[in-house]
Amino acid sequence: MFAALSPSKFYFLDAGKREMKKNGVLLTTCLSSLVFYSAHATPAPTKTTASRESFHHAYSPLGDQQKPDTRKNDTPQARASNKTESIVVLGSGASRETQTLSHLALQEVAPGTSPLKTLSKLPGVMFTSSDPLGAYEWSQQIIIRGFDQSRLGFTMDGIPLGNLAYGNDNGLSIGRALQTENNGPATLAQGAGSVGVAASNDLGGALEFTSIDPTTKYGVDVAGTVGSYGTWRTFARVNSGTLPGGGRLYVSYDYQDANKWKGDGIQQQQQANAKFIQPLGEKVKLTLFGDYSQRAENDYQDLSLSMIRTKGYDVDNITNNYSLAKQIAKAYQNGTPFPKGIANQDQSYYNSAGLRQDVLAYGRLDFDLTSRLKASTTVYGHTNTGEGIYATPYTPTPEALGGSPLSVRTTEYDIHREGFIGSLTYKIAHHTIEGGFWFENNDFEQARRFYPLNESGYTGSSVHWFRNNAFETQWQSAFNTKTYQFHLQDTWQITPALKLNYGFKSLVVDAHARQLEGNIMGAPLTNTFAGGAITSANGFLPQLGANYRLNRHNELFADFARNMAAFDNSTTGATSPFAMTSAAYAATKNTLRPEMSYSEEIGYRYHDHRIQASLTGYYIEFENRLASISPVSSGTNVQGYASILSNVGGVTARGIDAAFNYHFTDNWSIYASYAYNQSTYDDNLTTGGVTYATKGKSVVGMPRNLANVQLSYDDGSIWGNVGMQYQGRRTYTYTNDQWIKPNDIFNLNVGYRFHSHNWVLHGLDAQINVTNLFDKRYVATVGSTGFAVSDPSGSLQTLQAGAPRMVFFTLRKHFF
Predict the structure, then answer these.
(1) Distance CA 189, CA 91 (A)
(2) Helix (H, G, I), strand (E, B) or coil at 368
(3) pLDDT tens, 201-212?
(4) Helix (H) or strand (E) holding 305
(5) Closest among 147, 127, 101 to 5, alpha carbons compared
(6) Rg of the chain on CA atoms, in Å
(7) pLDDT for residue 62
(8) Of 403, 454, 621, 797, which is most buried by a Cβ count within 10 Å?
């Protein structure tokens, strides 16, 4: 929804903050203390662009108007010309604001960095995370023009990734779907994605990620990274080259491990990718892709403003101090004073973590039926097992099972989804007509359980899976979601200068929920959450855009789109009708309406051989905003009380996005972007018989001002860039009674590409990355546990501290 507008949680609507948590972070080792991998890991384009518009500077936000040539060239000469690979942004001819970030730009940052963090250089994109790589999913937050990730569309090679919420019930994060080294170009549309994007929740823009293809020549790429706080990461990929029969394949694997930068705990991930491309005659191509991922990560504690003011940014969980955790729990349960320095039972938990295991695969056939007619069909499948764990002082372990004043509460997830995507494109005269269909069947199971702890605490790892011997199942639910989307669009080249795009999509999402009986110590426990069925449907969601070239260097564009977001379908979903009690659902189900958005934008682009620039203005109306209103008003809601879902009005957003890139010499360039967003609530909020003055207030989570500046150098051997990202102040309350200070964070990336014929140095690259260069202390994520109507005492624990300065060193080598 709108910037944290998104699941407008009136207080900690995450039903699983503690119960969900993420997994995985850094990695890397060294091959005999060195280790290698090469930028060659993904070979440079076969052709280089003659114009200086594509000069070095991996991140050329306003790049050339054509997408990078993704054909591979495995020669050392191609590697030497990596600097010519540029990011393509605001591509010529597009009827809406859209940019593409190149593969090379995604590789210049520290290995393991989320591509979402790298994309935050683009205008209008705000990304935050409390870890240096942006990979820690509990704290990940991306907001574009006021819409957060729950209301943006995400795909990888066209496969839907779901809403990227922490407790995702219909997908997985890009970091679990694709290794960072295998990321191809990533395309962002800030205002509205194409009508063909496979997403049922994209009220705002869309992010379309791609995977690189196998190379035509045999090769091995290895890499190793070491860094601050015990970070290490290893990566290896083998490309088969062209096989007998014309096919080609790669298989890759990585393992990463790091300590938390504060407190006690680890963040780990291991992942494998495989991709195979096989021509079937001259007219058909088969593509197969597979991904396996395991993530396990201990959490950082959520902070409040009052905690930061009195105790600083380093307050964290006490995973290494079970004795203190028991004292805190007993004090809470007995009503006695807390230990010295402890304000309440929620200040620090004994442990919390997130565990995820995913398998994702797809198969696609591309058909060149005639010179005018092309088609593609894709089938995909995804399974996920997840668990968010939290050692809770609210429910002690029964005496018969150990008698600890603590127990482990979990929120458990199981996703089984499969889908089909088909499209057909026909060119006739000055028209390119394209249509397609997307179907997905998703079975999702979710449960809240409690597991015993003994007097000595955890007997295994702090990221241990709890799937057996629960003494209580508070609730368990089974959901089925069927999604049907049809789209049709035409691109009409009316004159050589004027192009018109128009089309629509039809979206139907049928959601069914079945609540299962719980139990406590073998005795039945009534599940009070709602079951039933609800449909989100709209048969006509249009999009209309135009592009007009004034001359060789200047163009104008405009776009209008209407979109709908389907209801969430889970027990903890922020816009799920089934997160209510049966009574609340029965009272509201006939009045609930899916959220809608109307977006308009108009813009201007300029580009020549050295300067590229863009300016876009937009207006957005967000209607039928859904808010889950919690019965809790302050502090935390880790007990997960059921909330009431209702439509609470709308939001209006106005703003501008601007970007500028200047190659002032062959080796030097400067990039800058600025975004202004004024997102405000249209109505006051009434809950529990009380009306709150929210009309005209700023939307939670979204700063009004965002800016980026990056200075880059690349002579083919030595390369580097230093960048600054600025975020204006943000609020986490709907009445705007609390604000988080602005921050400006600098990052440094430098490297050297060896061009020696010596077998040791040949194909070798070295790289150093420094995050938060000036070691600034600041609040990174706002709203990690939700948002409140107000927080006059500053006691709401919904903030995540930004990571301190951290340094990473990487060696990469390409063999053969």
Answers:
(1) 11
(2) strand
(3) 999 999 999 999
(4) helix 305-311
(5) 147
(6) 26
(7) 32
(8) 797
Residue among 564, 580, 463, 434 nearest 513 (CA): 580
Helix (H) or strand (E) holding 147: strand 147-148
What is the 3 state secondary structure string of 65-91?
A: CCCCCCCECCCHHHHHCHHHCCCEECC
Helix intervals (H) in 377-511: none
Q: Is 584 strand, coil or helix?
A: helix
The pair of three-digit structure tokens given for residue 356, joined into one six-digit string: 């995820």
The structure tokens listed for 368 are: 């060149």
Asked if 176 contacts 383 with a C-beta cutoff of 8 angstroms, the reply is no
- The pLDDT tens digits of the residues spanning 280-307 come to 999 999 999 999 999 999 999 999 999 9
Q: Give pLDDT tens digits for 369-420.
A: 999 999 999 999 999 999 999 999 999 999 999 899 999 999 999 999 999 9
pLDDT confidence of residue 462:
87
- Location of structure tokens 């995604």: 106
Compute the distance between CA of residue 220 and CA of residue 712 in angstroms, rounded to an integer.
29
Length of the chain: 816
Q: For 711-714, which contacts have Cβ atoms below 8 Å and span 24 or more sequence positions?
A: 711/668, 711/669, 711/670, 712/56, 712/57, 712/58, 712/59, 712/668, 712/669, 712/670, 712/671, 713/56, 713/667, 713/668, 714/55, 714/56, 714/57, 714/58, 714/83, 714/667
pLDDT at residue 529, as a whole number: 93
Reduced to 3 states, what is the DSSP secondary structure of residue 149? helix
Supply the DSSP symbol for 28.
B
Exposure string (b/e) for 404-427, b if CB count within 10 Å is 16 or more?
Answer: bbbbbbbbbbbbebebebebbbbe
Pairing of strands 626-629, 8-9: parallel
What per-residue confidence (pLDDT) applies to 629? 65
Low-confidence ranges of the chain (pLDDT < 70): 1-91, 629-643
Query: What 8-state DSSP symbol labels residue 688?
Result: T
**What's the CA gap between 533 and 482, in Å, rounded?**
11
Bridge-based pairing state of the strands 186-189 and 644-647: unpaired
